[in-house]
Amino acid sequence: MRPDFRHTESPHQERRDRANLRALLPYLWEYRGRVLLALSCLVLAKVANIGVPLILKQIVDGLDARQQAVVMLPVTLLLAYGALKLGNALFSELRDVLFARVRYRAMRRLTLRTLAHLHDLSLRFHLERKTGAISRDLERGARSLSTLLNYLAFSILPVIVEFLLAAGLLLGRYPAIFTLIIFGSVVVYVAFTLAITNWRMEHRHLMNRLESQAGNEAIESLINYETVKYFGNEDWELRRCDATLAAWENSAVLSQTSMSVLNFGQGTIIAVGVTVMMVVAAGQVAAGQMTLGDLVLVNALLLQLFIPLNFLGIVYRQIKYALADMDDLVRLFERTPEIRDAPVATELRVTQGELRFEQVDFGYQPDRQILFDVSFTVPPGRKLAVVGASGAGKSTLARLLFRFYDATGGRVLVDGQDIRTVTQRSLRAAIGIVPQDTVLFNDTLYYNLAYARPDASQDEIIAAVRMAQLHDFIAALPAGYETVVGERGLKLSGGEKQRVAIARAILKRPRILIFDEATSALDSRSEQAILQALRAVAAEHTTLVIAHRLSTIVDADQILVLDHGRVREQGSHRELLQQGGLYAQMWALQQREQAALDEERALLGME
Prior knowledge:
Layout: H1 11-22, H2 25-29, H3 32-63, H4 72-120, H5 123-128, H6 131-173, H7 176-223, H8 225-231, H9 234-286, H10 292-334, E1 355-365, E2 368-378, E3 383-388, H11 394-401, E4 409-414, E5 417-418, H12 424-429, E6 431-434, H13 445-450, H14 458-467, H15 471-476, H16 494-508, E7 512-516, H17 524-538, E8 542-546, E9 558-563, E10 566-571, H18 573-579, H19 582-606
Parallel strand pairs: 3-8, 3-9, 6-7, 7-8
Antiparallel strand pairs: 1-2, 1-4, 4-5, 9-10
């Protein structure tokens, strides 16, 4: 069953709209001097614009055959008319130029702020996120900020300024009936626009959510391209996306239809207001209480007011849409990072590199605990391996050490410092990892290798690559180190990606190393070569090895056996075999599996 995406305008939504508008203030405050200067140009432009019908009135009255006219007077007024038109255009363009920096800087800052906030959010959020939907929300959010700034500065304020100037002019020179007609028309127009537009927002919110869902479905199907091909589900993915797009299409049609109703209603209100105004003005001229120039002035003012007022209805709708588009982004900012530095967090000082877990409890969910009272110590320069069945909690230890999550009980210490009391940046700078699943950027091999330490020299990078047994492979590629690895490194095999990860760990030169199934994607021959490199790298480092193949950790100083989140056994390889417990059983099982595999390979070789 599809989720119900319907949305109705409510007091809560109105409060959120106001909050979203307040979110614009920091972006305007940074360039407050430029904003004030732009607003000054705006006022001057509108003063010039209001002055145009005044000059036009004088021109018409000056040319009226029933009045005595000075020959040079119309020429002077015509020149003034042209000067006011030019002034209006000049100050309008100056306003645009001055505000351009504010607008585009705001978009730049919002994009960077969003990216920084996403990096600050916890691993839990990123494991649950929908990349396609977030991408759409980010794109629409930046675009909506630009829209709001643009309309507020170039549409709302100009109309308000011009309306106030025109109202003051009418009240000062003509009977109050003209001002009442204008105010009455505007009040009816605005009330009608607000009522219909708020009703239409239901369709806009639905369109946004369906568009985000369709985008997420499309991107997700491309990210999982191989899985789609494995199961031949191309048509299934197309049908799934098309069902969402069909709902989006229906909502978009309803939105467009209701907009036509709104436009017609607005046009009707404007037509009635203009007709009433002209009837009253014509009666005043016929009675001799107004000149022909006065009639032209009133008509010109009406045109200057109602034309932007007509556009104001569209602007209001666009602002409401922009606020709706921005709402998802604002909600994203309201999500607070799960892991934060303590207010008095200090830099981690790594002197020896001792690693210690003290009675650590942890669960990803409150009702599903993963680790129970886990305690162990890795002395400086020593290697500790953690083994156990899948789901025993081995990789969780690495996530806790990197502080992607905080332990729910107990402590994790580096050189006696609780990692919750130090900055995350300094903690992660002291740790290097070779993960089980290495994900690379869609860039060159050189870029991905240098990512561990961007300031490293080319010689240092090549030295790390040689230690990871990767240099010969790269040298054989047509583009060498400039080879693009593809999305998430899909152009490389699993073993090649793991070698890149090993080279990066070497290049980073951390005091603490974590190998999380670091050779799981390698064949036996490559594994032995890599293990020699890893031993050389780990010789002077505190090393935590998470392993499935027991043959890769027989040289560990200590081996920890995890079973359902609890430490069941601990000791060296020889000591654990002598105990005859879980480790001994796992070793015997893997030895039998390896013997059977070797026998199968021998038979195939004989054939």
